[in-house]
Input
Amino acid sequence: MSELLRMAKSPKGRAFLLGELELMEELSKHVRVALGESDIRPEQADANRTVKRARRPAPVIQEPPQGETDQKNDPRPFDGTLGGLIACYKTDPDSPFQQIQFNTRENYLSLLRRIEPHGAEKISDINARTLRRWHESWVGREKRVAMAHSLMTMLRGMATFGATILESTLKVTLHDLNFEMPKARAKRLTMEHANLIRAKAHEMRLHSVAIAQAFQFECKLKQKDTIGEWVPVSESGVSDVIDGNEKWIRGLRWEEIDEKLILRRGKQPEVDLKLYPMVREELEQMGRKASGPVIVYERSRLPYQTYQFRREWRKVADAAGIPKDVMNMDSRAPARLDRLAPSHRPERGTESAR
Output
């Protein structure tokens, strides 16, 4: 209570508390909807909540407790175990883990959690037979070849760091071992698929999915480079789109598209969007804006969270009759086609494109 009173005495503290009260009020609406005690429809409550969130003042970012920052930057001593190697890999300032982007780091942490059950093993006791048994258990009866390959790749990355910085010997053990590779995806999202998705997205009033699909298919943009991503405000990168403790970065912005429909993104080559019929059509239908994110989720009026876009894209794709095994990630052409100019690039689905 004393902490609340202290915060209430400052303008920033009062703004933060008011924002929290608004959020609690909207949360209670959702609870009442779930219990059937409200006339508000779930989608209406969700729309109300997201608008409130968009208007909330950013909370006061407090300094970490004394010593926490020092502990994060102070590398842990290596105790010779696999768990010790994992801990050093995550905390050592010379580890490549410190240089990767936020979402990649989250993926790495997920992989490391799967490896951690073997953390008590001493590096000196891990031999080729040990690693083969681990790989077999990770593949399992479900034939999770891709996951097992990712875990072994994670181990190799840590082993390289350990050999370079910690004088660990795991890299030597892994050096001559080969494991089954996952099959390369043969599925491709064709021009017909892209057009079906665009048409269905407009029909479902998800115009943002239509223009995102156009950019991904014709301009060969990754999903992250198209819709952007939300990361903690403490991560590197400047953004004017902030929601609570998160900021939006890396997505397409209107400022990057000039009046002649030339897309300029940092050091990347300029792209003449007039050469791409799908993109041009979507831009003409949407109408060019002066600034801000290009791809905005209709429900929240904010850029998509990754899971939101994947969910809505799949809904549209299913409604459009796109096969279940064709995914949004299949929108980009093979690398050898990316190097061709639009006028020389064979249409996907043709014999010359295979």
The chain has a mean pLDDT of 77. The longest helix spans residues 11-34. The longest strand covers residues 229-232.
